[in-house]
Design a protein that fits this description.
This protein is an alpha+beta fold. It has one domain: Aminopeptidase, CATH 3.40.630.30. Helix content is about 30%, strand content about 40%. It contains 4 helices and 6 strands; from the N terminus they run ααβββαβαββ. Strands 1-2-3-4-6-5 form a 6-stranded mixed beta sheet, sandwiched between helices.
Amino acid sequence: MIEDDLDAVMAIEAASYSTPWKHEHFRDEMTARYSWPLVAVEEGSVVGYLCLMSLFEEAQILNVAVSPSRRGSGIARMLLREAFRLALEQGAEKVALEVRASNNAAITLYRQLGFTSVGIRARYYESVEDAILMEKFLKENP
């Protein structure tokens, strides 16, 4: 992800989340030492993104979204696999993330990629909806 990607990233973010990140969040990810923000590009246009933070043995997926018109086409899967590769390269043994309890499509994808549910963060989203905490051990199933 580079500065020129931010307008497209922000459009996807606004279409994907009721409480979207601000430009500053993405800029912080682009400059943070232990962060690897990624974009997926098709025909010169950003169609998805993922923000990965990897520090020591654990990596976290902080944010991931795909353009509504491209959902279901494998873009999120590709971004996640690249995040796994980067996390392993940085020495991570596992990857963690939170997902809305109502986001069945994402939960299904994460399970297909080897994530398991390890807990609940009650009322995590807007103090209303629970988050499911999920983890994937990289060395067992990259």
